Amino acid sequence: MLGKFTYCNPTKLYFGQGAVEGLNDELPKYGRNVVLIYGGGSIKKNGIYDEVVKILKKHGKSVAEIAGVMPNPTTDKLYEGMEIARAHKADLLLAVGGGSVCDYAKALAVSVNCDDDPWEKYYLRFEEPTCEILPVGCVLTMVGTGSEMNAGAVITNPHTKLKIGHVFADERVMPKFSVLDPTYTLTLPHYQMAAGIYDIFNHICEQYFSGEDDCTSDYISEGLMRSLLHSSRIANADMNSYEARSNIMWTATWALNTLVSRGKSTDWMVHMLGQAVGAHTDATHGMTLAAVSLPYYRHIMPYGLAKFVRFAVNVWGIDPAGKTDEETAEEGLAAMENWMRELGLAMNISELGATKDMINGIADSTLVMTGGYKVLTRDEIVKVLEESL
What we know:
Dehydroquinate synthase-like, alpha domain; 2 domains; 15 helices
């Protein structure tokens, strides 16, 4: 391993059926005023809301609510939440939902006591918090983002058509604790489950397709990818398989809790492309990633050929005997494409509402990252997006 790094992850996890009881250990550590944050209301239909509120009341908490956090949380929603949390004098932000709700809670945590405009400070200037950061806890109901154990928060500005993620360097932004009960994910529609699975897979890819040294992180990544492929196929056939869904949930957490990025540069261009598509279409995050991935990887494959060969052999089981490196690498991507189609993922951005006349606008919204095998020019971004149509 060539990298020099520091690793710290302070998030405490409660995993397994009935893990919500972990709130009984955590809630006494914080003050009386809790802001409960959730999305469109599905937690009220499936009973999770009642479970969480019962425990909050048991511990005498005064609860304010921020409901209606959307799949791509907006700046307007962030400003609304800041007013609610300030008025309630929040001691703890408790996110109950998927990655978007967790992301939103972390963005709120660094914004409530911020004197500057948080969009300007954190998402345009990419500054770190200089104010008091509110503690965050998560009860996860959908897997994919890994937001339950990292310091990342993605926010969309619908007025400027920018969807930007800030992975904060300050470990205090990470959730203090997260509750991971796989049974909470069993009621998800297939579309959302598949999108989450691809989000997990692509998180690993973004960290895997960089660097050329012999790095322990790459071996861990290959194991996580193989585990996910195995479990995803079981879950695709039987969405009620607890074993498969629990393995998917655990893989999601380790895919993006910063472990497999240690000692490496990282890519993240698929996310930049996908997030730009999402900013213009409001499409589901995992599906935007799926729609742009293969054109992007085929574009950069010549620049990182050795890693794409390794990916084909070690993840997809491609036999390289008698083949050129290019043939082996392409077989790996073809196997990946077959798996994506098997899951029912979006394979082009047209399916998500993007049109040819939107390409230049999406390209303008795409941030350029430098950690991968090829730094894209704007013309290359346009080409990849056109090939994604």
